[in-house]
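Subject: Sanity check before I submit

Could someone independently write out the structure tokens for this chain? I want to compare against mine line by line before I put it in a report. The sequence has 586 residues.
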Amino acid sequence: MKRNWKIRPHDAALTSSIERAAGVSPVVAHLLAVRGMTDPVAIREFIEAPFQNLRAPDLLPGVTGAAERIGKAIREGEKICIYGDYDADGMTATAILVRCIGMLGGQVTSFVPSRLDDGYGLNDDSLQRIQREGTQLVVTVDCGIASLHEAKTAQRLGMDLIITDHHQYGEELPDAAAIVHPALPGQDYPFAGLCGAGVALKLAWALCQQFSDGDRVAPAYRSFLLLALGLAAIGTVADVVPLVDENRLIVRHGLAFMKHETVTGLQQLIKLNKLEDKPSLTAEDIGFCLAPRLNAAGRLGQAQLGVELLTTDSESRALALAEYIHELNSSRDSLERKILKDANKAIEAQHLESEPAIVLADRNWHVGVIGIVAGRIAEKFNRPTILISQDAMGAASGAGSGRSACGVNLYQALNHCRDHLISCGGHRAAAGLRIEDEQIDLFREAFCQYVMEHTDPSDFEANLLIDLEVPLSHLTLRTLRELDQLAPFGMQNRRPVFCACGVRLQEPPRRMGSGERHLALRVVQHDVRMRAVAFGGGEWADQLDPEQGVYDFAFRPVINEFRGRRNVELQIVDWRKNAVMAELVS
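---
Independent answer below. Compare away.
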């Protein structure tokens, strides 16, 4: 889908003022200005990201009561089960509390539902299974806030329930011994954006304080909390929550600690992905290397192995699990490519690219992978997208996963269409559902109608926001190091996107990667030559021709490290024929 380039307006006077007052480089000052950060004190605090700005755990709603109940269970020898979720956020959150409670002397086990067999969140069968194993206290992580019926089941089975979650809650809250949630109604916690692992980290911190003398954490517990910080960083990046406020602190300091010390399983995963020699890990290393492998285990029904990878201290077991999960990711990748190909064919055949939303269903689609593909389609066509995996054995219902686009609140949209669904849940950007086959067409109609009523025609235009037009000669290693002061990059603090105009290709582009999905290029502008890559841009190979003209490229500049050498590299996100040259040719 062709994107409209929107280059942010440049206020030279404001940029110069920020540069002088905050003591930053011109490029950093420009980025801060266009992103609305102009106060020098706030800028220095943002850049330095002091660890002490992480709020005390007892400020998080529900933490004190939850820590007291878990502490009592530890001291009295009750059997505690951490009930997690099957994505990377849920796995890391589960690992944090399992490790914490075990370190404090508690009897703790974990249960992570199978995405394929159990579905998301609490369910009665799993609670009964846990109760038969002697569990007296269940602590959820990254789930449970909407489980009203299941909370009553836990009570009926004689188990206390503590819920820790960050997802959207309904009009009524579950009846539980404690609920830990950053956005509980009637509370005033200043940051509602924590993920499940971030909430678990705060609870673990409170438990460590409880088992120490006073509010200061004992040295042995402090070492554990630094390990937990690394786990929480993975969950935070993986769950694509805003990388601002406390989330930015968790990721910034978690990444720094992970480089020097982390749990055994992550050490093995880092080695398998050839990240151990990097001077520092980045949020992109989590988002594109580590988190997808953990998520692959969950998507293919092996989430419990992901938790074991994060909790085992056996090097041999950690290596075996890391290798297996690495292979699962390859399987997930193959499934994803097939489903994406099928979905694109269906969109073309049914002319769905002009519809307000895209809803597709198929019996051959793996339920664990459709969410990733829905995200790719939503991004490509700028349409909210729902993919439904119908039962391959012919049962009359299926599961769907959706991703938002053009500003639509997906959680509200699904709730509006609830009459056509068995169930649904999630948040504004991503959500899931269960649906009877006979309702799919009616749901598609209702969903498209909702999207049409809550958008304007201009919302469907694909816009690419560009921070700055910059000559390639300005992209030095020094400039990139200065840009990294604004890291970690992610949701609401995206890596800067620049553009360079009047760029030529040194040689024909070369496809690379599995399935030739990616593209490698050599570009030149005014005798400055650089390597560029376009991830997922393999289809551009036949459209970019070094003999046919001059191009404008939009890109993210990064430092590429290979065999001890560091070079500036461009990650191409879009391109167009250079307007001036095209006019001259015509």
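---
OP: Matches mine. For the report I'm noting this point. Residues 315-350 form the longest helix (36 residues).
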